[in-house]
Amino acid sequence: MSHITKILLKIIMLRIRNKIKPEIAEEQCRFAEDKGTSNAIYILRTLIERALEVQKDVYLCFIDYTKAFDRVCHDEIITHLKQLNIDGKDLRIIKTMYWEQTAAMRIENKTSTIQDIKRGVRQGCVLSPDLFSLYTNKRRSLVRTIRKRQTTFLGHVMRRGKLEHLITTGKFEGKRSRGRQREKIMDGLATWLGPGKVSDILATVKDRDLWRYMITNTYKQGT
């Protein structure tokens, strides 16, 4: 990549970063402005220390994304950038970089068939960290959308009659079996919203406007 190209991409990065930044989760420390691994280490260590003080278990999940940069879909990147209303000129330059690329392998005098490149962000490109962060955070927003729709569906059903509300909040007589219990729909809501918020939603579900306002604001602030 030439020096002129790097300068041009640096200018584009500064232009689009203000629009990409609000899309990045607060918890993300890598590829985030004024943050780094030291922030993540401090947060994790403090959480562990606080948990040990009150004898609570801490569970960590480490995920190793194989070839993460190479699996980013070009079409999805462009779609996300369009949704952010990126300037047309900047968008065309990014398209030129990533669209209609081809590659072939050559070994001695033999050349393979030409293949279209439809995935991956450029290694060493100043735009790659921002584009990768936007791509992964949009995937996270998809999970949030699914949660919101499930919660909306529950409220829609429960407003239909007393029977639905009774079945949701009521319990059968008897004892639970030993061992790990199966997860229920209300368990998922309690995890996403918090136990107190679930009860608030159930109490206000009949007020359609208030219920819709509560759901919208809950998932705006959620992860």
TrEMBL record:
Organism: Plakobranchus ocellatus
Keyword Transferase: yes
InterPro entries assigned: DNA/RNA_pol_sf, RT_dom
Protein name: LINE-1 reverse transcriptase
Molecular function, one GO term: RNA-directed DNA polymerase activity
Lineage per the UniProt record: Eukaryota, Metazoa, Spiralia, Lophotrochozoa, Mollusca
Keyword NAD tagged: no
Every Reverse transcriptase domain range: 1-216
Stretches that traverse the bilayer: none
Keyword annotations from UniProtKB, A to Z: Nucleotidyltransferase, RNA-directed DNA polymerase, Transferase
